[in-house]
Write a structure and sequence with these properties.
2 strands, mainly alpha, two-stranded antiparallel ribbon, 9 helices
Length: 171
């Protein structure tokens, strides 16, 4: 046991958890400033359904990066508010990572030896009941509903700026 912890630290220290630079630069390059995103002077009730669809189409394309950040924040909140689900995800990811580091060799702890298939089976036996108790399906549906209400609500009530009307008329 004392030999396993330094091995885990050594393996984790060499890993890179960075998001690819290209994706990050493209996604965050389109982030709109908060004063534009939360401009309360442009909030109004749409007159009819055609107005709603026009606003949603415009705002979804204009604020897509801001909406992605909101979705990520709601994902983070849903995991923090469901600690059992967070534990199960960590258990499965960590267990599969550590079993994968064995490179197909059996794990020996004293007189006990366990093959990788036995370790995967044990992980499955523990993770599935805990996964059902963590209610991931209700968390996903909450996340979808909260994201839809937040994002579509913002997109439908925020008027496009006056300049956008002139952009559409130019040929």
């Amino acid at each position: 046991m004392a030999q396993i912890i330094p091995m885990i630290r050594e393996r984790l220290s060499g890993m890179s958890f960075n998001v690819p630079e290209r994706f990050r630069s493209e996604r965050f390059a389109n982030l709109r400033p908060l004063n534009e995103f939360f401009d309360i002077r442009r909030v109004s009730k749409p007159a009819h359904f055609g107005d709603v669809t026009q606003r949603v189409n415009y705002n979804l394309s204009r604020f897509s990066s801001n909406y992605a950040v909101i979705f990520a924040m709601l994902c983070f909140y849903s995991l923090i508010s469901n600690p059992l689900l967070l534990f199960v995800i960590g258990l499965v990811v960590g267990g599969m990572f550590l079993i994968g580091k064995l490179n197909g060799e059996a794990l020996s702890i004293g007189p006990i030896q366990a093959t990788t298939s036995q370790l995967y089976t044990g992980l499955l036996i523990v993770a599935v009941p805990l996964g059902f108790l963590a209610s991931p399906i209700s968390t996903v549906f909450w996340l979808l509903g909260a994201s839809a209400v937040t994002i579509l609500g913002h997109a439908s009530f925020l008027e496009p700026p006056v300049e956008s009307a002139f952009e559409e008329q130019q040929v």
